[in-house]
Amino acid sequence: MDNKIGENGAKYLGEGIAKCGTLTSLNLKLWSNKIGENGAKYLGEEIAKCITLTSLNLDLNRNSIGEDGAKFLEEGIVKCATLTSLNLNLSRNSIGEKGAKYLGEGIAKCVTLTSLNLDLSVNNIRDNGAKYLGEGIAKCVTLTSLDIKLWSNRIGENGAK
Fold it and tell me: Which of 18, 104, 107, 112 would staple 49 via disulfide (CB 3.0–4.6 Å)?
């Protein structure tokens, strides 16, 4: 937390994690570390190599990953075919509507998920972002536990539908 590991630090962490061939549970908290879009890309690429993961807790609160960073993470997470539990905190990362769309599309592809905890607070996802997330989550027919935090995202009545 708040170590300013940056994008290179995220790359090295990801490379180390990917070498743990039998990893089933990963809990990675990197709040306020300025990993940015490239750091999210590195983490997404390396998490994708963790093919035995069943539980992923990824907390990247306040890292300025933006919409492309959300896309890179989504691309990595969907390759974890055995994932049953996903806890993803991307609050305060400026992912916007497009980032929410990428995440919604990715979540829809996680067909083994039973538990989803998603915090996208303060990301300006607006109505369309909320819609994309809702559409993706609706396709997760195996979910038994769902927790979503979307405060301060300028979501109106249409987004709440």
Answer: 18
